[in-house]
């Protein structure tokens, strides 16, 4: 089974970028907020973040994988057992609810940020 891939990046104009993916490429909209949105890109997830300025000092660019909660927990244990430091500590939100999710981030040896996510089954089916 292929796992959905996700990529997050900054946009100078979040709304214009969102509309490009939705209207030009016929992608569908996932979650949407004032500062970011998820676009379902051919079965995968792109998260578009509104940049506060053109040359933002701290980049949030990263890539990652969307897993089941059990797979996410397995990787979390493995990464902890190897002593790999977290860029973003593990967090789970809305446990037991239809909108449950979790994530954590680490660096690879080259400094690339890798994010591991899970969503409840109801959200996962829409990705």
3D architecture notes:
Pfam families: Glyoxalase. Residues 3-119 form the VOC domain. This is VOC family protein. With 127 residues, the chain is an alpha+beta fold. Helices cover 22% and strands 42% of the residues. The protein has two domains: 1-60, Roll (2,3-Dihydroxybiphenyl 1,2-Dioxygenase, domain 1), CATH 3.10.180; 64-127, 2,3-Dihydroxybiphenyl 1,2-Dioxygenase, domain 1. It has three helices and eight strands. Strands 2-3-4-1-5-8-7-6 form an eight-stranded mixed β-sheet. It is globular and about 45 Å long. The model has no long low-confidence stretch (mean pLDDT 86).
Summarize the structure.
The protein has 127 residues and is α+β, with helices and mostly antiparallel strands. It contains 3 helices and 8 strands, in the order βαββββαβββα.
Primary descriptors:
globular; Glyas_Fos-R_dOase_dom; alpha+beta; 2,3-Dihydroxybiphenyl 1,2-Dioxygenase, domain 1; 8 strands; VOC_core; eight-stranded mixed sheet; 127 residues
Topology:
Layout: E1 5-11, H1 14-24, E2 28-32, E3 36-41, E4 44-50, E5 62-67, H2 69-81, E6 86-93, E7 101-107, E8 113-119, H3 121-124
Parallel strand pairs: 1-4, 5-8
Antiparallel strand pairs: 1-5, 2-3, 3-4, 6-7, 7-8
From the spread of the alpha carbons, the general shape counts as globular
Mind telling me the CATH superfamily name of the largest domain? 2,3-Dihydroxybiphenyl 1,2-Dioxygenase, domain 1
Q: Give me the side-by-side strand order of the main sheet.
A: 2-3-4-1-5-8-7-6
Number of strands: 8
Q: How large is the count of helical segments?
A: 3
CATH architecture of the largest domain: Roll
Return the domain count. 2
Q: Mean pLDDT, rounded to whole units?
A: 86
CATH topological fold name of the largest domain: 2,3-Dihydroxybiphenyl 1,2-Dioxygenase, domain 1
CATH class of the largest domain: Alpha Beta
Nearest-angstrom radius of gyration? 15 Å
The end-to-end distance, rounded to whole angstroms, is 14 Å
Low-confidence stretches: none
Helical fraction equals 10-25%
> Beta fraction of the residues?
35-45%
Give the class from helix and strand content and strand pairing.
Answer: alpha+beta
Please provide the ordered H/E string of secondary-structure elements. Answer: EHEEEEHEEEH
Main sheet attributes: strand count, strand direction, barrel closure: 8 strands, mixed
InterPro entries: Glyas_Bleomycin-R_OHBP_Dase, Glyas_Fos-R_dOase_dom, VOC_core
Protein name: VOC family protein
Pfam family, one: Glyoxalase
Organism: Microbulbifer taiwanensis
